């Protein structure tokens, strides 16, 4: 006889036995082994898929198959595995997916699935209420065995949300993307606030500061410094408030956070607060150093470098304001018309100017001095393709900027006497540019010279400030260095600088020394003869002095943006240059 329609056939099928039926939940248990093998297979499939590079439609279909397989694994094994084992696997698989940059899958299939077991409300609705947060996620307190898993799931959920925003709106141009980033920051801060009194959760505090810093750096690049300041301050205070994180081991990271806070103040045109916070950081570093000296009479080289790096970061932020403020005069102060000629000063021994004397007093090496110069010249309100002279009306401030570029050119050229603001180019020697180290690494190892990234940054700053003599003196020197490198990173930097050189006549028709012709196979430098017909025809077009064609500006800005865009969202930080 046929079975009646709607009869529960599944009830007649025996359910497979749970893992506990076969003994301990450990390797060797057939349910555990089968579960682990299926997870390995699907993760391996997704990992291979990520690096395969098939056509998009096919890739989407294969990815959907992998996601469905993972979904079915969770459904299949949930009733057969103990809750503690199942939950641990949810988060471990989520971590593996996040490492593969499968953030959406990690969020929906792992972290979200874990949290849905305990929470029925919208998580974003409770990011501002600490009491509701505690009662929702930690009803049994923080000694509960699931507390660490819950903190981990909450934190990684936030990271995945942020990374998904970066994938869909890399430049955070949509208001919704910005708001989501701030919601993520608030959620991270709330979790850290709850965990801070518990020393055993110091790992959560440390990781939380890293995530907050990463997101805030991204937002600072989008002009959101005023809004992210509170989160960077919070991250800094958390590092100071967690006893395990006060050790020397974490000092480098703490100094990085201090630096970010100071830079944020400078972005908000509150330089005095940036300097005050840097001086405060210097005091904290000195306190730790004294404590370390009291505890141990021996100081190894690694510890010395940690303190040296942290001190350098704070000193650079102090210099950023001090170099200007030390030269400001009261408005009623009589300014003499006679000023020191930098062209004449280049014949003098270092230090030649007031700025160079301050550099010598505060920093004991050329890489450290160059780092201070770059930071003092950096201004978040400036854009490379919108060059403009220094804004302040004070003659002294303009003098300081010129002196900073003057000092930077001397360091970049290695002190070669033939290289000066008006002098000949040092095109045959670029041993002062280090291809593999950052400025900080050069300082700590005691090497001379500057890093390649710092040299490129210096050229861009000269272009931004309309320091054309400095730009012309350094561009060929740096381009020769870049052309000698094979790494794609340096080829990208080379193309950026060539684009800037091509933009010179568009922005300011003037005597320029470089031109570049682009062939089908490569880009070659071609020096245009002075007064060439091509150049003269170009100048006689619709471009007026200081008013480049809007269409050309849009084109140049777009091309420069495409070339400059990095594959990673990591943020304009001179200390990694």
UniProtKB/TrEMBL annotation:
It comes from Grus japonensis. Keywords: Cell projection, Cilium, Flagellum. The keyword 4Fe-4S does not apply. InterPro entries: CFAP54. Residues 524-536 have a biased composition (Basic and acidic residues). This is Cilia- and flagella-associated protein 54. Pfam families: CFAP54_N. The keyword Cytoplasm does not apply. Transmembrane segments: none annotated. PANTHER family: CILIA- AND FLAGELLA-ASSOCIATED PROTEIN 54 (PTHR33487). Residues 522-545 are annotated as: Disordered.
């Amino acid at each position: 006889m046929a079975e009646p329609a709607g009869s529960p056939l599944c009830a007649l099928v025996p359910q497979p036995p749970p893992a506990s039926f076969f003994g301990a939940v450990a390797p060797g248990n057939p349910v555990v082994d089968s579960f682990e093998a299926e997870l390995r297979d699907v993760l391996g499939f997704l990992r291979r898929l990520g690096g395969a590079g098939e056509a998009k439609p096919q890739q989407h279909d294969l990815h959907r198959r992998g996601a469905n397989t993972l979904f079915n694994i969770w459904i299949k094994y949930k009733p057969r595995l103990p809750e503690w084992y199942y939950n641990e696997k949810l988060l471990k698989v989520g971590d593996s997916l996040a490492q593969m940059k499968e953030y959406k899958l990690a969020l929906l299939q792992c972290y979200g699935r874990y949290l849905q077991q305990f929470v029925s409300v919208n998580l974003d609705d409770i990011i501002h209420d600490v009491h509701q947060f505690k009662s929702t996620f930690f009803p049994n307190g923080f000694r509960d065995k699931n507390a660490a898993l819950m903190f981990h799931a909450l934190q990684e959920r936030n990271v995945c949300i942020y990374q998904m925003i970066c994938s869909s709106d890399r430049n955070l141009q949509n208001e919704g993307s910005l708001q989501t980033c701030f919601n993520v920051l608030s959620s991270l801060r709330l979790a850290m606030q709850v965990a801070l009194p518990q020393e055993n959760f110091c790992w959560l505090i440390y990781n939380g500061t890293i995530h907050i810093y990463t997101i805030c750096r991204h937002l600072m690049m989008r002009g959101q410094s005023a809004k992210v300041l509170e989160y960077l301050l919070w991250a800094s205070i958390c590092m100071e408030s967690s006893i395990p994180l006060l050790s020397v081991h974490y000092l480098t990271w703490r100094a990085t956070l201090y630096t970010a806070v100071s830079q944020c103040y400078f972005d908000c045109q509150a330089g005095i607060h940036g300097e005050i916070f840097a001086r405060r950081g210097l005091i904290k570093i000195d306190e730790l150093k004294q404590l370390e000296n009291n505890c141990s009479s021996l100081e190894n080289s690694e510890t010395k470098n940690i303190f040296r790096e942290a001190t350098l970061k704070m000193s650079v932020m102090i210099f950023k304001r001090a170099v200007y403020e030390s030269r400001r005069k009261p408005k009623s102060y009589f300014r003499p018309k006679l000023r020191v000629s930098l062209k004449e000063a280049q014949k003098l021994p270092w230090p030649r100017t007031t700025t160079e004397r301050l550099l010598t007093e505060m920093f004991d090496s050329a890489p450290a001095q160059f780092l201070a110069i770059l930071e003092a010249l950096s201004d978040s309100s400036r854009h490379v393709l919108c060059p403009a002279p220094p804004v302040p009306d004070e003659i002294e401030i303009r003098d300081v900027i010129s002196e900073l570029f003057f000092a930077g050119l001397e360091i970049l050229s290695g002190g070669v006497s033939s290289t000066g603001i008006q002098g000949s180019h040092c095109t045959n020697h670029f041993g002062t540019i280090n291809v593999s180290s950052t400025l900080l690494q050069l300082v700590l190892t005691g090497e001379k010279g500057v890093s390649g990234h710092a040299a490129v940054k210096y050229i861009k700053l000269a272009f931004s400030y309309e320091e054309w003599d400095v730009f012309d003196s350094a561009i060929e020197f740096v381009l020769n260095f870049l052309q000698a490198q094979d790494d794609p990173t340096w080829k990208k930097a080379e193309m950026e600088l060539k684009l800037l050189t091509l933009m010179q006549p568009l922005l300011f028709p003037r005597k320029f020394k470089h031109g570049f012709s682009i062939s089908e196979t490569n880009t070659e430098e071609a020096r245009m003869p002075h007064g060439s017909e091509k150049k003269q025809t170009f100048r006689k077009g619709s471009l007026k002095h200081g008013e480049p064609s809007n269409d050309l500006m849009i084109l140049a800005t777009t091309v420069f943006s495409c070339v400059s865009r990095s594959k990673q969202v990591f943020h304009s930080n001179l200390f990694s240059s």
